Amino acid sequence: MRATLCIVALALLTIAYGTRAADDQSQPWKPPSPDTIPQGPLGDSIRLGRLIFTQTPKYARPYVGNQQSCSHCHLAAGTAPFAAPVVGLPGLFPMFDKRANRVITLDERIQECFVRSENGRPLPYDAPEMTALIAYMQWLSQGQQAGHAFPGRGLVHLPELAPNVQHGEQVYTQQCSGCHGEDGAGMPPAVPPVWGPGAYNDGAGMNNVANMAAFAQHNMPADKPGSLSAQDAYDVAAFIHGKPHTAFNQAYAHY
Q: Domain spanning 2-15+39-140 has what CATH number?
């Protein structure tokens, strides 16, 4: 197992610091084709990482406590601009984390997601699932310049608005319930729950009204992304925020 991890780690350096010019912005960025995933241990790890990313409860079952996958927040398998893309992230870590109030590694950031968004428990640093997720992110990030944020990183910026929960309920009924259900339970694995036991817990980033509003305004509804006004997005985010979410396990408060 150690030998495999070493092979993967060495190969990741080749991906991260490849010869393609990182600052060439003449062409729009496109995700690398799956056909370019190499054979051997590295390729196997990348492919596993993509499966974990898009079907987390299935491929990382021991560490997941709900019905959320990484790709439910990081859309298009982590490649969609302003949907929290993971492209380029490996080159930005270690970084200061406001929530943890300390400098964290990429491994620790992944652990944050598992204990909060997936309401589970942290992946061990040496787990094959951890190696696979980092391998996948490194593969997506090939050609990105270390220390420079990917265009479209994070979420869109919205003005700070006072939400109207009653109007948010109307927005949810009209624009969201068709996929996420009147009870917020979604249609897993394709459509995630937005409240209840299958959803993210109350310590997750999406349980923040401003974060949810920025995500929803740019990316939702899935068939009409960008059609919500900033006010609509704040209102529906506040409505969802007021629904039941599992309490964050304080045993993991340092994440």
A: 1.10.760.10
